[in-house]
Amino acid sequence: MFKKIKHPNVGILLFLGPTQLFLCMVVAAALYPNYNIANNYISDLGMAGSSAAWLFNISILLFGASVMLAANIMRSKNKLFALLALLTGLGFFGVGIFPADFAVAHLTLALIGFIFGGMMMIAAFKLKLQWFGQISVLLGLFSLIATGLLLADLTLGLGIGGMERLAFYPILIWTASFGGILSIRKNN
Fold first, then answer.
1. How large is the average pLDDT for residues 162-187?
2. Cα of 45 vs its chain's centroid, Å
3. Is 0.85 topped by the overall pTM?
4. Are 123 and 143 in contact (CB under 8 A)?
């Protein structure tokens, strides 16, 4: 279905957005004293006390922007998928604008990103991506279940940070993979 997308950079955009965020999260976590992936939320990296807050906040803002731009480019191909991608990007873009210091806005926007990110992956099944469509559904369900467990404070021994990563990392991995698929297709 996406073979007819005329914009040559949509796949690259979707690959680079999550990739740069993941790398910046590693750097920000390394610079954060006593940061623990089991006990700290990802967004602790963007709080005022973090030594690399600017890095995390700009990076997640860029990730959200990349997903929103790609959604805009793809909107004529599948409106539901594009809407879910737009809302996913908006959620994560907002997380960069409202760090966890702004608790209510931040939590609302993070949930928008997590929930619509999971739904976006499930909706990708309709894009006729062969085996990747089936994996998309599984990753989407996995992310949504992890989000539900996190909200219910059922961390299964992984801690809040571990469960949050099980909700968020599938979105990052899927977005980068989807971007890679789009970037190598002919006439994308």
1. 92
2. 16
3. yes
4. no
